[in-house]
Write a structure and sequence with these properties.
- The protein is an alpha/beta fold.
- It has six helices and seven strands.
- It has a single domain, classed as Maf protein.
- Strands 1, 2, 3, 4, 5, 6 and 7 form a seven-stranded mixed sheet that branches.
- Helix 1 crosses helix 6.
- Bound molecules: inosinic acid.
């Protein structure tokens, strides 16, 4: 990693921050910036990430990245998608399980989406990561956060919450942050 030695990650979510810091493993110093930005509603992950990165840079005046993430269930039209945070607060994991009651096979397919928005005052770049899997029949595991107990990544019998630090090797977030890391190598 060349020019950039440290980078601000604008997030209020400590779990996200820890996962990203663990990913970089000291190769890049990631500093949490818990500053308020207005998340636009009803847009794509990419539009939200771009808008938040731009706002974060305006406040911080230093290279910064943000992440917009969420769970998408194709059999529910991509729900909760960009509304994942609101839905998690209102319905929680049990609510999602209820919506899928009686559904089997492909109708349980789900994916976690991560979009990183990076802004250095000159350009805004986005980096995407998707992790495909299924919604498990019930909550399992104690690690992680949010929807981790109900998401079972493809090729695994455990949920993200059961995989613990094993989540890092395959997650949507790791894929998106990996793309950011690659971009910063030639920065
Ligand atoms: P946001 O990116 O902070 O807006 O997150 C949207 C919602 O998705 C929140 O409720 C998070 O808890 C949830 N979420 C985002 N990433 C993950 C993840 O890696 N595991 C579990 N839930 C997540």
């Amino acid at each position: 990693m060349a020019a950039i030695k440290e980078l601000y990650f604008c997030t209020g979510n400590r779990h996200k921050f820890n996962e990203v810091a663990e990913f970089f493993n000291g190769k890049l110093k990631v500093i949490q910036a818990d500053i308020d930005v207005d998340e636009p509603r009803g847009e794509s992950f990419e539009e939200i990430a771009k808008s938040c990165a731009k706002q974060a840079y305006k406040k911080l005046k230093k290279p910064v990245f943000v992440e917009d993430a969420g769970l998408a269930i194709p059999s529910l039209g991509g729900f909760p998608g960009t509304y994942s945070a609101w839905v998690f607060k209102k319905l929680g994991n049990d609510g999602i399980l209820k919506l899928l009651e009686g559904k089997t096979g492909a109708r349980l397919a789900a994916e976690f989406v991560s979009c990183i928005g990076f802004c250095d005052g000159k350009a805004i770049k986005t980096f995407n990561g998707i992790c495909k899997g299924i919604i498990a029949p019930n909550c399992r595991g104690n690690a992680g956060f949010g929807y981790d107990p109900i998401f079972q990544p493809a090729g695994h019998n455990e949920t993200f919450a059961e995989l613990g630090s094993g989540k890092l090797a395959i997650s949507h977030r790791s894929i998106a942050v990996g793309a950011l890391q690659k971009y910063l190598r030639d920065y």
